Amino acid sequence: MERGTGKVQVHVGLIDGPVQLSHPELNTTRFQTLGKGSSPACSRHSSFACMHGTFVAGILASKRGSAAPAICPGCTILLRPIFGESARAVPVATAGDLAAAIVDCVDAGAHVVNLSAALLSATGTEQTVVRNALDHASARGTIIVAAAGNDSIIGSTAITRHPWVIPVVAYDVAGRPLALSNLGASIGRSGLGAPGQRITSLSAAGPPRTFDGTSVATPFVAGAIALLRSEFPGVAATAIREAVDAVRAGRRVSLMPPLLDAWGAYKRLAALRRT
Fold this sequence. Notes:
Elements: E1 11-15, E2 30-33, H1 48-61, E3 76-79, H2 95-107, E4 112-115, H3 124-140, E5 143-147, E6 165-171, H4 185-190, E7 192-195, E8 199-201, E9 209-211, H5 214-231, H6 237-245, H7 262-274
Helix pairs in contact: 1-5, 2-3, 5-7, 6-7
């Protein structure tokens, strides 16, 4: 983050709820909207979907110096809402909606997709639809970063077990996984930990809010990848993945993934560029 704010040529897909686009801390962010379903802008600022989408957008791309982390405000954010604002509690979307959103982001040129949503259960056919969308992302070099989920369970889903996906576990301020985070063999093998406790970001209505969980940890990884892509635009997506993943070198197999080491990944990519 000290090296820059990200490049406009780097596209970050945000599959979430709608965003309060009129928020003063987002009025300089470059947004592009995708899809023909839900509106990208909030119509009910008090809805959970609007709050969630705005909160995650703030972590990724609010103005530097705001209450939010503002990891890559110079990047272009591709908004692809999948949560409607009518739900009174945590919004949901079908596996088909999720798969279509992933394909839309990939086809629009996303370098990385932030998916702060979990797929807890799906039929075999629905899992195939999601898997095919993730295969499409892999073939096109679009890195998928997805929340591991907040159900305190051991296991995986069609998303978190896909080899191209980076599942994200929420870690506390002491560097330990939060008890609510889902863990599992595929999550430990391919995932990363990121800050997920007492994270403050933008509120769609009123002052900034603070939340815990894997949804708020995920944009730390997606944002770091966007900054790496900005610094090393000619490097292949596989090299970015390998640089971020190198933090697990020499570790024993575990259900718990290692913490993201963004600066370590930067140094590995810088060394690759010199060779």
